[in-house]
Structure formats: structure tokens, C-alpha cells
Write the C-alpha cells for this entry.
Amino acid sequence: MKISINGRFLSQALTGVQRYAAEIVKAIDHALVSGRFPARLHDCEWQLLVPPDVREVLDLEKIKVRKIGRLSGHAWDQVDLARAAAGGRLISLANSGPVLHRDQIVVIHDAQVFRRPDFFGWRYRAVHRTMDRLLARSATIATVSNFSRQELADVLRLSASRIPVLPNSAEHFANTVPDYGILGRLGLRSHSYFLFIGSMTKNKNLTVATRAIQSLNRPDVPLVIVGGHNSSVFQDNLGKATPNLILAGRLTDSEIAALYGRASAFVFPSLYEGFGVPPLEAMLFGCPVIASTADAVKETCGDAAAYFDANDADALRQCMQARLAAGAITESERKRQQDRLAQFSWQRSADALLQFLAQRHIN
């Protein structure tokens, strides 16, 4: 049997979803190289199908990379990919796939378009709600957390027990060498700043973090905001820039690793998440985490984070004050972080996907 992987994520800007897809593909390839995969998949032919506008190509040994079609975006999914993958099994890891392909597993990362429609424009909301409903009828839906499994089961009218959970991990940062020069370039002192990493979309709730840092009234301890932005977005969502806010823009993984390692704490104020990877990334570098009580975030972080209500800027300020008073991370805190990190592995998630495929394999 031919097993195709939807590679449209390689034509998209890198966010958590695209990172997830890339890491799972690399972990599947590693399993194929090592021979550590279910025997029922032994004779399968693997290919990663990518559109013509790919930004990068993964370095794979066993999975063949094929550039196909002339279209882009959803049209490529529904036409070019559907045609190239016809007659075989398809894996789509980044929230979408051809709705008419009957032998497909699609990873939908959250139910945000249903639960928080206020976060999206009407066109985006309409397209993705319709696509999710169609995929729920034609494909097997998988997701990244128990919270998202229940959410998707509810909104798509599926049995939660039939939705595999294939979690994220933070291991993609494990071999990253920190570039501590970024502290000097941003004018930062070690362990004298709070860190936010992410987009400025509504669910990330950055407004609450900025209110908290302003009410903290510690201009010597700024909030560093890492992620894509422009002045109009900043103006619309955050108000005017102040001395205790540093907009770092997009940074390299090495620069981000350094900021994680030297921050007073990482702040994660999300209103809604399907999983919540950045807190795990912070824990990888021994950075204390202050996170919202969003269900998926608590599922990910467990007892290794300090929590606050995402709508309560004063509660976040109090957490920040407590972290500054506590100082460096303690051995017991670090142990809790390491225990949480051990729960998540790209390879284990890829192996679970392979096992699921083997159970459904038709010779």
C-alpha cells in the first residue's frame, strides 16, 4: 500500500501546527530507518507530497518527497493532493486535507473555530467549520490532547474514544545551542525580564500580559514579546509601547533558547489552546512558567507551572511578583518540569500513529 503525507505545511509560515507536522514526519522517517515500526506496514511505500510553493524540504531517508500540482492553499489540498494520493492512505497533520479522500487520518489541533468564533473573521470561520465537519464524515480525526479530543467529539458529533491523541513535544529545542548575545542586543539583564513568545492573535491574550507588566511597575523588569508583529497590530491589540515592553520581533531558535534560559519566567496567558507547546519549551531550559488556567494548558503543564485566571491581569501581576521574590528556580521546581517533559515525545507520538495505521491496515 502507498501511504502519502500531506506536505502543504511546508509552504506555510512556521507556527506550532507546522512545527508539529514537520517533527512527526521526521519521527516517522526515523522509525522507518531504524526498522522499529509495525510489521503490518513493512511493505508500504511512503511519500511526502508537497505543493510547488514549498518554503523548505525536509531531509528524509525513507520517505520520498514529491512535488506535485500547480495550485496552492486549500485548492492544492482538494485537487492536486486528492489526485496524487488517490488509491492509497493519506496522513494530514496540519488541520486540513482533501474532504473526498476516504482513507485518511487528519490531525485537527483544536476546536477553536467552534468554541471561540470571536477569534476569527467570518470567511475563515466559515471555511474551517465546514471543512472540519466534512472531514469528520469522511476521515479519521486525530488530535493532540485529551481536552481537544473531547472538544472535537462534542462539536463534530464524534465518539471521543475513536479520536487518537498524538501529543506535541518540546524536543525540537533539545539540541539548540543558545545565542546569549541576544540579551545584549535587546539590552536585557539575566533573570530580570519576563518572556512571551507567540503570535498576537486574540487567543494568545497578550493584552492581559501587558496590563500585568504595566501594573507591576518595575521598568527594570520588562516583558519581552517575541513573535511576528507590525506597528498597526501592536497599536490595535496592546496600546502604546512603554519602556517595560520590548518587542523583539521574530527571532531564531538559538536566540529564543537563550531568552528561555535567562528569563525570570515565561508568561503564557492564552484564553484557549489545543495543547500549549511554549510552556514545555520554557521548561526544557529550566525557565519557570506562569500560565493561564485554560484546560489544555493545565493538561500540558500539570504541577510544573504557576497558574492564573486568563481574564485577571492582577492575578498575573501577583504571580510575577511572587516569582521575582522567589528568585532562581528551585531543585523541586526543576524536577517537576523534567517530569512533565518526560511525558511528551515526538517519537512516541509518531509510533502511536504508526500503530494506529497498522491496526487499520488492509492488505
